[in-house]
Amino acid sequence: SPIDTAKFVAAKRAVDFVEDGMRVGLGTGSTAAWMVRCLGERVREEGLRIAGVPTSTRTAELARQVGIRVISLDEARWLDLTIDGADEFDMDLNLIKGGGGAHLQEKIVATASDQMIVITDPSKQVEHLGSFPLPVEVIPFGWQTSKALIEETLASLEVLGQTSALRMNGEAPFVTDEGNHIIDLYLQRIGNPRQLSMVLNQIPGVVENGLFIDICDKVVIGHQDGRVEVID
Ligand code: DER
Asked: Which residues form the active site (predicted)?
């Protein structure tokens, strides 16, 4: 499909930045899955010697399937490069991530990397973050209280929307790789993402939010006609 072509060309371009001997953070989502497949091809065909640190169990499984040596973040300690997708990016290269429910490990791995490259298609580019619901990971204990505290906090911040919802997986609450829940915030437009990210993470029960501020170094945009743009 055209959108798959856009994701594929972005993923393939990003894999060109991977050098022999690197420790690479492997993102989660459909665009990141194309990246893992392209990286596996380079390992098999060029004998590229890299170690991959996955950001979810499903990425770990795919990486092993395509022949990438998978190690834990604790074994790697620091990474040379992380390549991951995003749900939105603005012109400051700030992101909303977490659409796939993996933003906690993704943010830890991206922060432990010398460089983060985000692979996207044009639908992810926005003037202001916030049209995509902002994921906030909360521990299961007292999650309804956490949700209420989050909404109370929103009233005092520069956001247009004030509603939130527990993310479901069918009839049951969605559960992350760490066994936590996700509250999606419908903010419409985030005026001050840096402030919002800090305030959210101060709320008891909140583990991490999906705003990536000053973490992304380069955005690769794939187009369905095969063109690729790199913004940094
Ligand atoms: O959950 C995530 O953070 C994913 O990276 C998401 O932001 C992008 O997923 P996609 O590549 O399937 O659109």
From this structure: 106
* Ligand 1 atom showing the smallest separation from residue 28 Cα: 5
d(C-alpha 125, C-alpha 221), whole Å: 9
Could you report the predicted ipTM of this complex, rounded to two decimals?
0.97
- Half-sphere exposure in the Cβ direction for 192 (13 Å, CA): 9
Of all residues in the chain, the percent with pLDDT exceeding 70 is 100
Which tokens is 216 given? Answer: 């992304």
Confidence of residue 171 (pLDDT cuts 50, 70, 90): very high
Cβ neighbours of 156 (radius 10 Å): 8
Which residue(s) pair with 184 in the sheet? 135, 165
Minimal-distance CA residue to ligand 1 atom 6? 86
Q: Which of 106, 158, 178, 229 is catalytic?
A: 106
For ligand 1, atom 9: residue with the closest CA: 29
The three-state secondary structure class of 122 is helix
Q: Which residues contact 19 (CB under 8 A, 6 or more apart)?
A: 80
CA 80, CA 48: separation in Å to the nearest integer? 15
| pLDDT band per the 50, 70, 90 thresholds, residue 3 | confident
